[in-house]
Amino acid sequence: MEIEIKCIACGYGKHSVVNNFSTTINQGDILCFLGPNGVGKTTLFKSIMGLLPLLDGQVLIDGTDLKKISRKKFASLIGYVPQTHSTPFAFQALDVVLMGSTARLNAFSNPSKSDYIKAHEVMEQLSIERFADKIFTELSGGERQMVMIARALMQEPAFIMLDEPTASLDFGNQAKVLKELKTLSNQGIGIAMTTHVPEHAFLCGGKAVLFTPGGHALSGPVKEILTEKNLEKAYGLPVAVIEDRWHNRKMIHCTPVI
Ligand SMILES: Nc1ncnc2c1ncn2[C@@H]1O[C@H](COP(=O)(O)OP(=O)(O)OP(=O)(O)O)[C@@H](O)[C@H]1O
């Protein structure tokens, strides 16, 4: 299964932010989107998710135009973890995770016993089982982030799109989320995520899309795209990309030169 993004333009009203952008996401891929603030990564993700109307182009899932896919079917194909998440109601974290299963339910049906079992399993997988009974709005930003990833996993989607999934996480939880995303991609789920940390893209392996300030996108294997030259072009300052070895493991560090 693949998501084909074909020459899309997206933005607000008549104002386009991203123009003529194309890429393909296959199941099992990890595709990291990088680029400076305001270049249009969130706008692009919202447009792919159908939350903003496309100004031009098409998003095809296995050749079928997104517009022809029902919302219910779509939810079973792509899970979405937005950048900010708030809920006006005092739901328990477990309820928020269970909301992921509503994609598969009818309008008036309640989650089944197996949905509850699965929700607990997913929370355990992400080491957040201890938050199950806590009120979502009373969790920290990072804890809420993990709950939202669990909610996306409840949908059992073929793809997950995550907008800055590591943004408010501590050092350890950032690594835990990246490791989890790698595991999910090894299990065949296609992952698309935005990040402001080039090292995270190197840790994930896979492919990268790097937007430069003019909105031009470079895409390809991470090592070919996140070069010193391209990163300097994107962020407007020299960047050192250093290959290293640690206990026989290849590591890549990425540091701005200030
Ligand atoms: N609701 C909106 N209406 C009009 N313009 C918007 C709206 N939301 C965002 N924009 C504009 O669209 C542009 C792209 O914003 P977007 O949030 O997609 O960037 P981004 O690359 O995700 O940024 P960041 O890395 O800071 O999250 C920005 O210039 C922003 O001001």
From TrEMBL:
The record's annotation in InterPro entries points to: AAA+_ATPase, ABC_transporter-like_ATP-bd, ABC_transporter-like_CS, Metal_Ion_Import_ABC, P-loop_NTPase
Q: Which SUPFAM superfamilies match?
A: P-loop containing nucleoside triphosphate hydrolases (SSF52540)
Q: At the top level of its lineage, which domain of life is listed?
A: Bacteria
For this chain, one GO molecular function annotation is: ATP binding
Q: Which Pfam families match?
A: ABC_tran (PF00005)
Name the UniProt key words of this record, in alphabetical order: ATP-binding, Nucleotide-binding, Transport
**ABC transporter domain: which residues?**
3-238
Give the protein name, as stated in the record. Answer: ABC transporter ATP-binding protein
